[in-house]
C-alpha cells in the first residue's frame, strides 16, 4: 500500500511538473493522442489560436490548427523538424515529434516557435545567404551539380511551388532545347531566363535579350537577323549583326514573344529548325549555335485557336515549358520577398534599415499583388525611401492596398486600417477563400490540379473546401 501510494504521488508530481513546464515555456505546445485528438494545449498556443484551451481539447487537431501535419506524423512515425507552417496568415517555424511506446506511435507533440515573424525571416534569409556564400566558395574552381543549383539563388522563394519550379528549370537548363517561359507580368520571367542561361551549357556565352513588343514591326527583322551593307536607305557601311549573331554560343531571350508578328514567327521557326540566319539584304546562310528562350504573359494556346500565333511554332516552343505562378498563388513567399528587398534596397539607397510591424506584414500577405513581384518591389522601395520611422506600421502602407483589400470600398478600407472591421482570423479566412477560388477557376474546377497549383495535398484542399463551405 505504501509503495502504491508513493507511486501515485510521484505520478501526480510528474504530471504537475509537466503542466507547469507547458505553461512557462514561451513556445506553443500541443499534444495529440494516437487518433489525432488534442489532449494537451498550453496557454501560449491557445492565445495564439484565439480560443480557450477548453474549446480545443478533445477535438481532432485538423479542426483546431490550420495546416497542421501532426496527424500525418502519427501515420509515418517520422519527426518533422524546422518546418514552415502557415497559421492565421503567419508563417511559423514548427517541430512535429512522434511519441513511441515500444514500436507503436501513441501520440505526437507539436511545437510552434513564437519568435517574431520579422526576426524569423531575417534569420532564415541570413542562414540562406551564409549557405549560398559557403557553397560558392567551395565550388569556385569547379563546375559541379551544386554550382548549377546556385545559379538560381537570385530567384527568391521558399514555397513548395517555387522549389518545384526551380528544380524543373534546372532540369530544363541542362538540355539544349528551346524554352518557353509563361506567366503574368512582373512574375520574374527574365530572372528565370537568366538563371537557366547561367546553369546551361551556353552559360559561358553571352545573354542577349530583346523585347519583341518594343520594336516596331518594320525594324524587328533587322534587329533580330542584322543586315548587309546597302540593304536599305540609311544602312550602315559594312552592315550590322543582329541579335541572333550577337548571341552566338550563348542565349537569345525573346521577351514578349506573343507580340511578334505572324510573318516574323515563320522566320523564327525557320531559324530554330535550320540553326542558321540570313541577314536582311543578304543571301548567305550564317550558322548560329545558341539557345533560344522565349517568354510571354499571353495565353499562346488561345492565340493559336484565334489564328494569332503559329501552331507549329507554339508546339516547337512548348516542348520545354516553364510556367511561373502569380504571387497570389504562392503567398508564403511574400514575407521572404519583402524582407529580402527591404534589405537590398536599404543598402542600395544607403538608408537606415527598418522593421515591419507584424500587422503591416499581415496586410502585405493578404494583398493580392496584381502586379506581382514588380509591384511588391515598387511598394517596398517607397516604404524604404519615404518612411522615416524605424518601424513601418499599417498606416504607412499606400492607400491602394487598402482599396484593393476591400474591393474599392473606402469605408471598409478605413475600418481595416484601424483594425475594427473584422478580426484577424476572419480576414485570413476570407483571403484563403479567395486564393482557393482563384486556383479552382484557373484549373477549370479540377481539384487535383488546383491542389498542385497551391502546393498542397489534395486531401488538404478537400478539407479546406469543407471548412470554408465550398464543397
TrEMBL record:
Pfam families of this UniProt entry?
Answer: AAA_lid_14, HTH_8, PAS, Sigma54_activat
Task: Name the keywords, alphabetized.
Answer: ATP-binding, DNA-binding, Nucleotide-binding, Transcription, Transcription regulation
Keyword flag Transport: no
Molecular function in Gene Ontology: ATP binding; sequence-specific DNA binding
What the entry lists under SUPFAM superfamilies is as follows: Homeodomain-like, P-loop containing nucleoside triphosphate hydrolases, PYP-like sensor domain (PAS domain)
Biological process according to GO = regulation of DNA-templated transcription
Occurrences of domain Sigma-54 factor interaction (ranges): 155-385
Q: Does the keyword Transmembrane apply?
A: no
* InterPro entries, per the entry: AAA+_ATPase, AAA_lid_NorR, Homeodomain-like_sf, HTH_Fis, P-loop_NTPase, PAS, PAS-like_dom_sf, PAS_fold
- Which residue intervals define the domain PAS in the entry? 14-66
State what protein this is by name: Sigma-54-dependent Fis family transcriptional regulator
